[in-house]
Each structure stands twice: as structure tokens, then as C-alpha cells.
Design goal:
Helix content: 10-25%
Shape: rod-shaped
Number of strands: 3
Order of helices and strands: EHEHE
Largest sheet: 3 strands, antiparallel
Low-confidence stretches: 56-60
Radius of gyration: 27 Å
Number of helices: 2
Oligomer: single chain
Structural class: alpha+beta
Length: about 80
């Protein structure tokens, strides 16, 4: 899951255990669902250190080749 760090790491001068450094506010990194729960809700500081980044899925457009068909009419006499 992609998350973005809040300014709480810098305010409390806390190093992230997995990154082994203090993430800057706005920095994006990957965490597991369990780690997200701890960093966002259930920690001893009762504060959110990260917020979930909404990933925008881009729609893939399928391009189909079209063949032109020439229609002709026979002229009637």
C-alpha cells in the first residue's frame, strides 16, 4: 500500500523502524496493511504518521483496427 508521511515524524523526531530514518513530510513509500494500521491509528502516540495515497487507475484504451469497405452500386440502365 502506498502511503504519504505526515509532519509528525519530524515534529516528534522519530525514526521509522523500516526505513531507518526520519521520513520528510509528503514523502511516499510502501507499507503493509498491518504496518499502515499501526502508523495511522493504533500507536502509543495516538497520532497518524502516514496517510493513504489514493492511486488513480488509468483506463487502458483498446485500439481496434478498422478496415474500410468500399460499397459500390451498379448503375441500372
Amino acid at each position: 500500500m502506498l502511503v504519504e508521511a505526515t509532519n509528525k515524524y519530524e515534529e516528534l523526531k522519530l525514526k521509522d523502524k523500516e526505513l531507518n530514518r526520519i521520513p520528510k513530510a509528503g514523502e511516499k513509500f510502501e507499507v503493509t496493511e498491518e504496518r499502515f494500521e499501526v502508523l495511522s491509528k493504533s500507536n502509543k502516540y495516538n497520532t497518524a504518521f502516514v496517510k493513504k495515497v489514493e492511486e488513480i487507475e488509468t483506463a487502458k484504451k483498446e485500439i481496434k483496427a478498422e478496415t474500410a469497405v468500399k460499397k459500390t452500386k451498379k448503375k441500372s440502365k
